Amino acid sequence: MLTTLAVENYRSLRDLVLPLSRLTVVTGVNGTGKSNLYRALRLLADAGRNGAVAALAREGGLPSTLWAGPEAVGKRATVQGTVRTKPVGLRLGFGGDEFGYALDFGLPVPNKDPDRPTLFNLDPEFKRESLWCGPVLRQTAVLADRAGPSVRVRDESGAWAAASRIGLTDSMLSELGDPRACPELMIVRERLRSWRFYDQFRTDAGAPARQDRIGTRTTVLGHDGADLAAALRTIQEFGDDEALAEAVSDAFPRSRVEVVGADGLLRLRFHQHGLLRPLGAAELSDGTLRYLLWVAALLSPRPPELLVLNEPETSLHPDLLPALAALIVKASRRAQVVVVSHARPLVVALSEDATTLELEKSFGATAVSGQGRLDRPSWHWPKR
After folding, report:
1. Domain segments of the chain: what residues?
2. Interval 176-189: pLDDT, tens
3. Cα separation of 108 and 126, whole Å?
4. Angle, helices 321-332/286-298, rounded to nearest 10 degrees
5. b/e code 336-361 from CB counts within 10 Å (16+ = b)
6. CA end-to-end distance (rounded Å), the chain
7. What tens digit of pLDDT does each residue of 336-362 get?
8. Keywords, A to Z (predicted)?
């Protein structure tokens, strides 16, 4: 389980170190940095797929994602007119019961050779990466360490093996593929790849979840919800069918979900009390469809290492939030869950079972309300 999340210089997250529990709820008013925290977690997960550099490019490149305020923030700090004196760096990391990991992105050394001009001087590069045992970085606990293109790993005796070289835009998690060299790298990589992120499912008329599709056994709902019918049927056949029936009846009394096959396609049928026929996915209201998507995601027969939900209350009537909260709590017994939400009724419903972190802005930077420097979890970044 992850116990600490650390982010530095990513958008409004100038210097943030968060404690994580089995169920963590992140809340705050609009503009305090909740979405930035969600994006930072996704970016960290992308490192396990060697997709972090491409993800930064989709956000406009490293310069557009960096903290835009001053390097030092004090009581009299001003945001305008500051000059950077330190190297540009975007840092992401986590600590857990078993392993910790951190990465440090920076800009490449400018190419001043007139004979070899380049247009890629803003491509982010891995300046440092480190993997260690336990929640806090200690030099004696480091298992793999990367400085620029050079990567070192410890062998079975605990001694450092000969350094190898990888590309500056490649993560050591994906490029060191030999599990015999450092099996822990492969373990952490696969865990990062198992993290699941769900962010505002589409429920419009053309939404993937409203279409009948060829059904295959689906133990994890896709990010877009296109395999909703298959995921629900998989839960009914191989997962917790009783929990699914209970989740539906809690939200819609005396209603049930059925998945039928026709011509190789799986079709969702929603039996609602008072109606003479079941409703198909195309007929469901946005709120009903979205709730069923959350049911499929949270009751997955193969829970991920980490499940991150961004504003799951969107399009749901307040009366459905207690049922959604019960679903989230049940999911947290099988997987670690982080919920990002500004819906106070949902936050209150989860508060008894969750660690609640309320974000606020201080001189433009995101901070945890009430968290002093001594209240933060212990954390150390690998030095360049």
Report:
1. 2-20+49-192+360-375, 204-285
2. 756 667 889 999 99
3. 9
4. 10
5. bbbbbbbbeebbebbeebbbbbbbee
6. 28
7. 999 999 999 999 999 999 999 999 998
8. DNA damage, SOS response
C-alpha 318, offset from chain centre: 25
Q: Which of 297, 300, 303, 305 is nearest to 94 (CA)?
A: 305
Residue whose structure tokens are 């089995």 = 22
Structure-token pair, residue 158: 């605990």
Q: Which residues of 193-205 are buried (b: 16+ CB within 10 A; e: fewer)?
A: bbbbbbbebbbee
- pLDDT tens, residue by residue, 4-40: 999 999 999 999 999 999 999 999 999 999 999 999 9
Given the structure tokens 């799951």, which residue do they identify? 312
Q: What's the pLDDT score for residue 1?
A: 94
Tens of pLDDT, residue by residue over 105-121, are 998 877 666 767 776 77
